[in-house]
């Protein structure tokens, strides 16, 4: 069987590089235990930026539930089987993937690094995996598309309450080569996040993570002066436009009528909502509680996956 996707490099190759380098006294520049990256990030980032990235809603119960749910699943190794020649590739919604992995939408990436979305787009493209570009990006749709090169492109929509702005964002994404639309359902109001509140830190109020709306002609048409001249007024127009109003199932035809590719609904946790999503014409659902950042005490996303998969019954993709 031939496979045009990037070659899967075994982890043992990386281990061998480390051990061989160790013969000359070299050690890895970063911990190989990935759980140790978070405390290193805390040392490097400003407290507000770190809290925004690391924090969850309320007491963090949902974040802990997510981790506990994964910890309950265990690998059962099997022996004396062919495992040296393998492929992890698959196809999801018409996008060929070298492995069943996507880069989830993450907003305000420039609080971690000035290149932000551009760096992520370049890395994702090099690996052949889709970057799901957040509406809350620190760079414009067009800039990220250019950085993506030939890589696959998915676009995540924080759905504005003004249809003219929504349609403008969709048109820009289509023109820039984004083929799959991921609609986030669970953030029509921001969760109660103590780490952000204690620092009085919300990047959007500082004009961070607003590059896409602030560069949008339909959004700018509703401003008296440009965002570059009056940041406060622009923020005051944008934040209520994607928060404060719960959109409903009967609004989904607006997206279907104005998007040619697959539509994914992100934030599904209940089997009945999964059924409604399929009935509304969604091509896929993302089982997600927003990483525990929205509702303190919500069910772990992984715990709901079997019931949602059963409810969808193969009629749509389940991510």
Describe this structure in words.
It is a single chain. This protein has 319 residues and is α/β, with parallel strands linked by helices. Helices cover 39% and strands 10% of the residues. The chain has a 6-stranded parallel beta sheet with strand order 3-4-5-6-7-8. Strands 1-2 form a two-stranded antiparallel sheet. It is globular. It starts with 10 loop residues before the first helix and ends with a strand.
What percent of the residues sit in helical stretches (DSSP H or I)?
A: 25-40%
- The tally of beta strands, per DSSP, is 8
Beta-strand percent range? 5-15%
Largest sheet: 6 strands, parallel
| Spatial arrangement of strands, main beta sheet | 3-4-5-6-7-8
What is the overall number of helices?
A: 14
In N-to-C order, the SSE pattern is HHHHEEHEHEHEHHHHHEHEHE
Terminal Cα span: 26 Å
- Strand pairing plus helix content: what structural class? alpha/beta
Radius of gyration: 21 Å
Low-confidence stretches: 1-8
TL;DR?
This protein is of the alpha/beta class.
Quickly list its features:
319 residues; globular; 8 strands; two-stranded antiparallel sheet; 39% helix; 14 helices; disordered N terminus; six-stranded parallel beta sheet; alpha/beta
Topology of this protein?
Blueprint: H1 11-22, H2 37-44, H3 47-54, H4 61-71, E1 90-92, E2 95-97, H5 116-127, E3 131-133, H6 141-148, E4 153-157, H7 163-175, E5 180-184, H8 194-199, H9 211-214, H10 217-220, H11 231-242, H12 252-257, E6 263-268, H13 271-279, E7 284-287, H14 301-312, E8 317-318
Helix pairs in contact: 5-6, 13-14
